[in-house]
Specification:
Helix content is 49%, strand content 16%. It has 126 residues and is α/β, with parallel strands linked by helices. Helix 3 packs parallel to helix 4 (101-123). It starts with 6 loop residues before the first strand and ends with a helix. The structure holds nicotinamide-adenine-dinucleotide.
Length: 126
């Protein structure tokens, strides 16, 4: 992966798939920023990456909230100087078996789609 010195924001990088992506990116010498609502686990994962010799820090980010994107990306552009890569990973797992269709659709789309849209909107250079 050509990630050396790239500034990469991994949303939902505190645990699960996002945390593994963050570790792989850091292994490729990217400057990783983990954005997550789970600030405690995000900090733990960043610390673990740094202990392994990688570059990582965490920022609070709720991908469903536009203000939260603005704050996180302003902070990254100030601290790191730019954003090169956005991994729009954060999302919720939908329980397809135990929801009524309308409620399930609302939760699924409310949890997944705004985050991806807002991420692209604010990460793209203006
Ligand atoms: N695991 C699977 O089999 C699978 C399959 C298809 C798609 N996905 C998708 O891949 C992504 C990661 O899956 P996972 O299994 O690692 O999930 P996970 O539940 O283990 O981790 C999701 C992470 O996203 C964070 N998150 C949730 N809502 C957030 C929000 N509003 N703002 C910021 N962070 C938020 C959580 O705190 C957590 O750290 C999700 O978008 C999921 O829908 C997963």
């Amino acid at each position: 992966m050509r990630l050396r010195n790239k500034v990469a924001l991994i949303t939902g990088g505190a645990v699960g798939i996002g945390a593994e992506i963050a570790k792989r990116f850091a292994g490729g010498r990217a400057q990783v920023v983990i954005g997550d609502v789970n600030v405690v686990e995000a900090r733990t994962t960043s610390e673990s990456i740094r202990r392994s010799g990688g570059s990582a820090r965490s920022v609070p980010l709720d991908v469903t909230k536009e203000e939260s994107w603005k704050e996180a990306l302003d902070g990254i552009r100030t601290a790191e100087g730019r954003l090169d890569v956005l991994v729009n990973n954060a999302g919720i797992t939908t329980d397809f078996h135990h929801r009524d269709a309308a409620g399930g659709l609302r939760t699924h789309h409310g949890g997944q789609c705004p985050g991806v849209f807002l991420g692209i909107k604010h990460a793209l250079p203006s």
